[in-house]
Every structure is written in C-alpha cells, then in structure tokens.
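User: Please predict the structure of the protein below. I'd like the answer in structure-token form so I can feed it into my own downstream comparison script.

Assistant: Understood. Taking the following sequence of 411 residues as input:
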Amino acid sequence: MQTKLSEHYKHSAQGQEAEAILRACVHCGFCTATCPTYQLLGDELDGPRGRIYQIKQVLEGAAATSTIRTHLDRCLTCRSCETTCPSGVRYGRLVDIGRELVEEQTERPWLEQIQRKALRSILPYPQRFRLLLALGYLVKPVLPTNLAKKLPAQQGKRYQWSAKTQPRKVLAFDGCVQTVLTPSTHAAAARVLEKLGIELVRVPQAGCCGAVSQHLAAPEEALNFMRRNIDAWWPAIEAGAEAIMFSASGCGVMLKDYVQLLKHDTAYAAKAERVSALAKDLSELLVEAEFGSTQIPAHLKKIAFHSPCTLQHGLKLNGVVESILQKAGFELTPVANAHLCCGSAGTYSILQPELSQQLLANKLDHLQAHQPQIIATANIGCQMHLASEAKIPVVHWIELLDQALADPIFN
C-alpha cells in the first residue's frame, strides 16, 4: 500500500513504524472474512481493511474524528486478521498506534473518559480490584441481573503451592486480575510443573503486564508497567531462571511484545528482548511431557476447549493445549468457528457490551452444541466472560489436568 505521511508524522517513531506496517498491506480483503465485527456489522469501516484506511488517512494529514474513533474502538484486537493475512501485516500493532493518534486529536465524552480512567486505575492493581470485587459480592442481591452475572463464582480452596525446591526454576507471571479471580489456576500449574521437576517461583514485585493501558491508548503508562516487571524479574533471570511462565494468553501476547514496545528505550531494550524470549505459555512447558496413567473424573471427561484469540492468533499456539488434553485422556468436542472471538477481549466486554454479548452468544452456541460436560480455556478474560452465560462450568485447562494427575504415574 502506498503512503504519503504528513510532515507531522513522517519523522516520528510512531509514523515510521506505522508506515512500515501499512506498506506490507496489499488490501486484498482476506482479513474481512475472519473479522468478528465485520461479520456482525457488515460495514467495511468495521473490518481490518477499513480501519487500516482510516489510520492511513490520519497519518497522511486528515483530521481524526469521533467517527474514526468509534470504528477503532469497536476493534477487538483479536488478531484473527493477522492469521488470515497472506502479507504478514502487523495489524494489532497498527491499530494500537491508530488509537493513540486519534486519542490525542479528539476529546471523548466525559463519561467515557471516567470509565476508561477507572478501568486503568483499578484492573491493573490487585488490591484495588479485590476491594471492588468484595463490594460487588456484598451488593450482588440488589445489582441488575446483567451486572450480577459478571461477578464470578467465588473460588474453592485448592490454592496451596508446593514448597518443594526443584532443580529447574521458572518464574510465575501472576499478572493482576487472575490473581484475584482464580488463584487456583497457578496453584494447579505449580503442582503439575512440580511433577516435571520444575519449581514455579513467584515474584511479588511484578504486576500487570501493561495490556490494559496499552489497549486503552495510554502507552507511557503501559511502558512503566513493563519496566517495573523487567526490574522485578531481572535478578532471577540473571540467577538462571529458564522461563517466565504465563497461564493467561492475553498477558502472554503483551510479554512477547515487550521487545518491540521498548526497542527505543536504551536502558531497557536489551532486557526487554531477553524477557520476551523467556516468556512461555504454560502449554509450551508441558507439550513434550509424557503422561502415564491419569484419573479423569467421569463428570470432566468430555470437554469443549475455547482457544482464546491471544493463544491462537497472537501467540500462534493453536492446537497445543488441545494436544495436551487429548494425550491426558480427555475427549474434546468439535467447536464450529473456533477462530472467532468470544467477545471478552480485555476491557471490550465492558466498553462495547452490545457487540460483546452478540459474540458471546454465538461462541457459547458453538461450544455447547455437542453437549460437553465442561468448557476449558486458557485466558482469564475469556474464562470469566464465558462463565457469565454458560450453562456448564468454565475453567482454566490446567485445573482439569491437575485433577487428572492428582495421583498418577507421571513419566
């Protein structure tokens, strides 16, 4: 795609990066076929190609408008279009840049400003989020039904991490929301990894990956989260930690992007490159493991796996979790249109509730079509979003594996 950037952006880092991405696009339109919002709305401006043109216009000097902002807001950043694109266009990064530029040039209604600021001020901070959640449970009986459904079921008690020292050390990326909503996820991961001789080590000084700020057009705030995490992990990395394990694929995509987002920071560029290289999804640590006998409870045998967009499109790990579960003895049901987003997409379910609910309804129809006993997934946002309307339990897949290996012969 030919571009002619305005003088304002021609020599900026944002403009140069965006131009390189734009030039890779041949505007073939393959991306529209797999775009969830285009499928729902049928509007070219609500598909990747249309959004690319709008970002291009802004970079070339056209005024950013509230209409352009709306079309960019409706993007899920699911990256399904990246999987489809034959030219390797880095659309996810381009839409982040576009949002930043449009946010600078337009003014949102004050209610939107407050809502987005509140999300950035609460979600990345576990203590603040825990207090808000506790308040939510307290007033749940008087909440409107649609809000009450968003409150997750309170967790069980399988939180205990093993205290055994193991020869191999892997850092646990706890993140923010998952530590509050499903602390049992990493407890289960620690138990399973222990069977491989891997110790999952917590680093309390680390926190949010920065994704909430990054996708809400607050890039400097996001970079500060990234730098804090790198500083927290660096002593353990220097001491020989072999990986930074994440079990929320949404966070994982962000960790993998540290190398790109901090490449101009002379103090952190090299460290960011190392962190992104070390960041591994939990499934990558288990994919080669050989299971002996497993004990799968009858009520958990038949499952539907929802592959988060961040897992299959962002991390390109489609089929990896499924192979682990099948090897362990679970029966996976077929899921139609598995490449499409469930509508969670970070804060999208809060900021774009109507579109999010349509996507959720479609996804649950497909996941529950073959009457599974349980739905498994690999991202906390998807897990909570699906659970708000699902007719059957929704869990992180590692908790199923943990139960199957509760007393096995593990080779």
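That's the full token string. The radius of gyration is 21 Å.
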